[in-house]
Each structure stands twice: as C-alpha cells, then as structure tokens.
Write a structure and sequence with these properties.
By secondary structure, this protein is mainly α. Helices cover 34% and strands 0% of the residues.
C-alpha cells in the first residue's frame, strides 16, 4: 500500500486561512474537488509507489490531479514564468 503525505484542508498555515473556507460552494473549484474526491477511482496510481516500508511518503495523486486540472482550466501550462 502506498503511503501519501497527509493533507487537511482545515489546517491553518502561518497566516490564519483555512483552505476549506476559501473554496466557494457551487464554483468550478468546489465541483472539481468534489468530483476528484468522490467520483474518480484513483487506485490506479497507488500501484506505482513502492514506499510501503521505507522512503518518503508521496503526495496524494488526488491533490496533484486537482492542481493540474485547475491550472489547465486557467490556461497555465507551465510552472515557469514566461
């Protein structure tokens, strides 16, 4: 079983912002998050990780997929400045 880095949208950062309160219900971001969390079967990604007993936990594929799809929806295709 692959190990993933724990993430929690209700956690507070250095500034008092809870990420779960930043996503407006009914928006594209909210729909995207709900669809990836509840409708997609992401178990396919778990077979590629071999960090059960050792190694650093990986980022959850659901979180990474949310970032990639959101970026593409905004026309961002690169993490580098143009």
């Amino acid at each position: 079983m692959a190990r993933y880095i724990d993430y929690n949208y209700d956690q507070m950062k250095m500034i008092p912002v809870a990420f779960s309160q930043q996503i407006v219900p009914g928006s594209f971001e909210h729909s995207l998050s709900w669809l990836i969390d509840h409708e997609l079967d992401l178990s396919l990604f778990g077979f590629h990780y071999k960090n059960d007993l050792n190694g650093r936990p990986a980022y959850d594929p659901a979180l990474l997929l949310k970032i990639v799809i959101f970026a593409y929806s905004r026309g961002i295709t690169s993490s580098r400045r143009r």
